[in-house]
Amino acid sequence: MSENKDPHVAESGVEDVKFVYDFTEGNKDLKDLLGGKGANLAEMTNLGLPVPPGFTITTEACKTYLDSGEEPAALRDEVSAHLEALEAKMGKKLGQADDPLLVSVRSGAKFSMPGMMDTVLNIGLSDKSVQGLAKQAGDDRFAWDSYRRLIQMFGKTVLGVDGDLFEDALEAAKDAKKVTVDTDLEAADLKKLVTKFKKIVKTEAGRDFPQDPREQMDLAIKAVFDSWNGDRAKLYRRQERIPHDLGTAVNVCSMVFGNLGPDSGTGVAFTRDPASGHQGVYGDYLQNAQGEDVVAGIRNTVPLAELESIDKKSYDQLMQIMETLENHYKDLCDIEFTIERGQLWMLQTRVGKRTAGAAFRIATQLVDQGLIDEAEALQRVTGAQLAQLMFPRFDDQAKVEQIGRGIAASPGAAVGKAVFDSYTAVKWSRSGEKVILVRRETNPDDLDGMIAAEGILTSRGGKTSHAAVVARGMGKTCVCGAEELEVDTKRRRMTVPGGHVVEEGDLISIDGSSGKVYLGEVPVVPSPVVEYFEGRMHAGADDADELVEAVHRIMAFADRKRRLRVRANADNAEDALRARRFGAQGIGLCRTEHMFLGDRRELVERLILADTESEREESLKELLPLQKQDFVELFEAMDGLPVTIRLLDPPLHEFLPDITELSVRVALAEARKDPHENELRLLQAVHRLHEQNPMLGLRGVRLGLVIPGLFTMQVRAIAEAAAERKNAKGDPRAEIMIPLVGTVQELEIVREEADQVIKEVQAATGTDLNLAIGTMIELPRAALTAGQIAEAAEFFSFGTNDLTQTVWGFSRDDVEASFFTAYLEKGIFGVSPFETIDRDGVGSLVKAAAEAGRATRPDLKLGVCGEHGGDPESVHFFHEVGLDYVSCSPFRIPVARLEAGRAASQSRGSDHR
């Protein structure tokens, strides 16, 4: 066999798969096979820590069961062999009458899924063995309490009995006794409760509670397997992006009891504070209790520090073990333990979940302690955590009135007066009012209002709708697709569930991190991390907080490690300067269409309506100096850094009024016998330019080929602006990008015209302009013929938004709202392909195009400027396929920088989900 053989395959061949491991056989690196809990129980056993003996049934057994509906044929015999070994080690048999061995059966997937799957404690108790347990423990109450717990957990988990029936019976028993907590029930009370619980099982499950201990164990194991596909487990995996095909391991562990009296108890502990990352004694302890009592919150715990006065010996031993585990795992550890009559037992450890702030603090602390290096520190934090730290958020302690919920499209917390059109948003904003722009959906006409607003709320659309994409680009809070809100823009109000009406001017608050919408003003807590990135708070300064220091250090680690450069998507000098403060190394996408809106719309309309060549040339002549000034300001803001300018891309109809509104205006004018000639011409143009699918119609390079002078005007504006900046001793580094190219011939024609314009400007200004010309790869054909296109292109920028749209055949403006939810629920998608790049489909085209392009032109510069450029997982893919840079909205630049550093150091990292 090969050296790297699968550890669960026996020497005799694949047929002899090993399905069960003793705790002494595994280790922490076998999480795929033993699950996180089993692997860590084995690791603690190997470290010589006090772990109750037991064994783990592998995830392979679970997957076989889930695939076939039957447990593997060999599983029962393997479990029997390990159970016999466990019985021999403990000196007692499962469920024997005089001194029973009892076990717990607990789930344990590769990734922690707390509370999502099933656990059953005290397996082995029966009408006979409960008497033996009472005798051995010298405590009747303890034995009957343990038995009622088993029936309750088994009935609910294994037999599907409504858990409330058991809870109601327990409450009734306490009421009858006139007590409020379980521990005040005596043995006689609990014995009656056991009888009641067994009757509930018989009535609800149609069978008696099983008295055979092996049947109890086998049914519990099967229930844990089944719980992998329970609704709550599937929902959790979708939320956490955990694959659905991993399966869960099952841990069978000899029971230790925290409910044997005041010298017993159970607790949870953290080696550091998971909320802040600070070192200290953190956790909870509960005397005379079993583990689920702590989790369920049915009794008040005491702080872990109080264990020192309750049981000094166990406390000191626990502190020692915690230090051992943290040094061994080199990370924050989350620990479950039980004390049985003064004997400490470790039931679980795992790398603990933590807040985003704690993650950054802990990573730098561990570097300072010499436990990890910079490369490993980068694996302890994520771009998603950094994003959480950057956006303002609502005060958790505030009282709120939620009125709706939509899609969390762009993070942050925004408060303002509801307004229902862009004009009002701008007007009120200029008067000093903070506003939330509320629309059914936004379009390019709303851009001014979106800029003026604190946040955007729409009742339609998804994460890649116009509102979402633009909001993320601007760093605006946005909630999209809040369908339960009925937005009436004409009457300037929205109706919320229950009939309450929000009128224009009413205060609302929107949470772009959760998608929640609130009535009134919710207090906002600012982010010091954004202040740091914007230069308003300096790391190392006396007033800089600990979190800012940690973020500063981690970002320095990332910048030293990363190979990918990070640019910004920015369309004006203000955004460019913000991007530069955030660490942008240039502009990867300047969308010139945004420069044609607002005050210039009339000029664009005249260009579109031009009937003669002279009218068209006149419109272009008026647009030229305006475009040139745009680029002068941009080159000044990004002096010394590359600026990639995309020539006009969207369909022309986007610059014209809405066809329905314009038709109504014309009809009303005709009814008054006062038709406006320009509006009639506009309506004719709208009809002429109408397309069934405008995103696949007359746009991009096609505009430049069919509207003479359009692209050459833009190229001339770029060249003249670069010459002016250069003559002013600046260092402009312009790159001209041709959009939507599908064949090299398109690019060759546009390039020839552009080269001629550049030569003319060089001659006229006496400057030597080195303007690179390249293209966007955003069509499948362009990706497939990249080798040919590279002959005429000095760079490629992958437009992954449109490439995803055209590869999948999706209209990104429609599909998220219509069927993506179903696709995610059915597991067709793990995540939207517009959010994270589809490696197998779109990604394979990117990889192939990059390789083909560089085969033709080895020095070809490669970047990406779609939304994926700021997505953490996608950044790792772009690093892997050898791109030179990613480009994203200014507010996502720190995230991209961090993930680029993490990608470069990935081989050193480990999984800290």
Automatic annotation (TrEMBL):
InterPro entries: ATP_grasp_subdomain_1, PEP-util_enz_mobile_dom, PEP_util_AS, PEP_util_C, Phosphohistidine_dom_sf, PPDK_AMP/ATP-bd, Pyruvate_phosphate_dikinase, Pyrv/PenolPyrv_kinase-like_dom
Keyword Protein biosynthesis belongs to the record: no
UniProt keyword annotations, A-Z: ATP-binding, Kinase, Magnesium, Metal-binding, Nucleotide-binding, Pyruvate, Transferase
Cofactors that this protein relies on: Mg(2+)
Domain PEP-utilising enzyme mobile: 433-515
Similarity section: Belongs to the PEP-utilizing enzyme family.
PANTHER family: PHOSPHOENOLPYRUVATE DIKINASE-RELATED, PYRUVATE, PHOSPHATE DIKINASE 1, CHLOROPLASTIC
Name the record gives this protein: Pyruvate, phosphate dikinase
Domain PEP-utilising enzyme C-terminal: 549-901
Domain Pyruvate phosphate dikinase AMP/ATP-binding residue range list: 75-300, 306-357
NCBIfam families cross-referenced by the UniProt entry: PRK05878.1, pyru_phos_dikin
Top-level taxon of origin: Bacteria
UniProt KW Transferase keyword: yes
Organism: Streptomyces dengpaensis
Reaction(s) the record says it catalyses: pyruvate + phosphate + ATP = phosphoenolpyruvate + AMP + diphosphate + H(+)
Enzyme kind, highest EC tier: transferase
Record EC number: 2.7.9.1
